[in-house]
Automatic annotation (TrEMBL):
<keyword id="KW-0328">Glycosyltransferase</keyword>
<protein>
    <recommendedName>
        <fullName>Uridine phosphorylase</fullName>
        <ecNumber>2.4.2.3</ecNumber>
    </recommendedName>
</protein>
<dbReference type="InterPro" id="IPR018016">
    <property type="entry name" value="Nucleoside_phosphorylase_CS"/>
</dbReference>
<comment type="similarity">
    <text>Belongs to the PNP/UDP phosphorylase family.</text>
</comment>
<dbReference type="GO" id="GO:0009164">
    <property type="term" value="P:nucleoside catabolic process"/>
</dbReference>
<dbReference type="GO" id="GO:0005829">
    <property type="term" value="C:cytosol"/>
</dbReference>
<dbReference type="GO" id="GO:0004850">
    <property type="term" value="F:uridine phosphorylase activity"/>
</dbReference>
<dbReference type="Pfam" id="PF01048">
    <property type="entry name" value="PNP_UDP_1"/>
</dbReference>
<feature type="domain" description="Nucleoside phosphorylase">
    <location>
        <begin position="17"/>
        <end position="200"/>
    </location>
</feature>
<dbReference type="InterPro" id="IPR000845">
    <property type="entry name" value="Nucleoside_phosphorylase_d"/>
</dbReference>
<dbReference type="InterPro" id="IPR035994">
    <property type="entry name" value="Nucleoside_phosphorylase_sf"/>
</dbReference>
<keyword id="KW-0808">Transferase</keyword>
Length: 247
């Protein structure tokens, strides 16, 4: 019998090369309408998965939960079953005034302020995406006329801290565009396993606004952030199409 990976509960028989990776399991409901032949696969812990096709290309969508530790498990287990390229479609908070709510960030490097990536390799090792996959994301966003930025994200481990304002001000001063919790682990572990990675972040928190309040309204689906989410999904799907076809 086919052995299943312990957390994602998927096995090698899946034979899908490309994975879209949101943090939130509920985001799969909003990815599904962009795919054909959708099949719900598994929902174990934070890892909910479905498969489908985009312009004929087989795609897996799987949620990774919150934080580098759970995202890292997904990277490892997806690699074990033969997934070759992974694009995170996450949400983030803005660290720059020009990054507005609903804008997307195509991440070209991540500050490794997480714990998971450091358990693999020294913090001086860079967290970077696959250059070709990132370029495909940029082309895909441009061709669809989406508002996007390219730059650095900071991935951190604790959503709540006592020093959030000071920490955000410091990284903002260094030109970091936004903060999330999974990109650094995805890039670092993905690189070490020979997996192509990219990360697209939909900004859901306006610069210098209260993070918890803004995330609350994103969950309620009230605002521009939902449009940004649609843009990041379509950008990632087109990037996979380009990777598959070279077009
Ligand atoms: O929207 P997702 O992909 O879950 O990502 C962001 O949202 C969560 C925090 O609210 C963290 O996981 C952060 O990285
Ligand atoms: O500000 C934010 C918003 C989303 N995710 C984060 O990690 N931080």
């Amino acid at each position: 019998m086919e052995s299943l990976q312990p957390h994602i509960q998927l096995g090698k028989d899946l034979q899908i090369k490309y994975a879209l990776m949101p943090g939130d399991p509920a985001r799969l409901d909003r990815i599904a309408p962009f795919l054909e032949n959708v099949t719900e696969l598994k929902f174990n812990r934070e890892y909910r998965s479905l498969s489908g096709t985009y312009k004929g290309v087989p795609i897996l969508a799987i949620s990774t939960g919150i934080g580098g530790a759970s995202a890292g498990i997904a990277v490892e287990e997806l690699h074990n079953i033969g997934v070759e390229a992974m694009i995170r479609i996450g949400s983030c908070g803005s660290l720059q005034p020009q990054v507005k709510v609903g804008d997307i960030i195509i991440v070209n490097g991540a500050v490794r302020d997480d714990g998971a990536s450091k358990t693999y390799i020294d913090a001086m090792f860079p967290a970077v995406p696959d250059a070709q996959l990132m370029l495909y994301c940029m082309e895909a966003a441009k061709e669809q006329d989406f508002q996007y930025h390219v730059g650095i994200a900071r991935s951190h481990d604790s959503f709540y801290t006592d020093d959030e304002e000071a920490i955000d001000a410091y990284w903002s001063k260094q030109g970091v565009l936004g903060c999330d919790m999974e990109t650094a682990a995805l890039f670092t572990i993905g690189h070490l396993r020979g997996v192509k990675t990219a990360s697209i972040l939909n900004n859901v928190v306006a610069y210098e606004q209260d993070t918890s309040e803004s995330i609350g309204s994103y969950v309620d689906g009230e605002n521009l952030a939902m449009e940004g989410e649609r843009h990041e999904i379509l950008t990632a799907l087109e990037a996979f199409y380009k990777l598959e076809t070279g077009k």
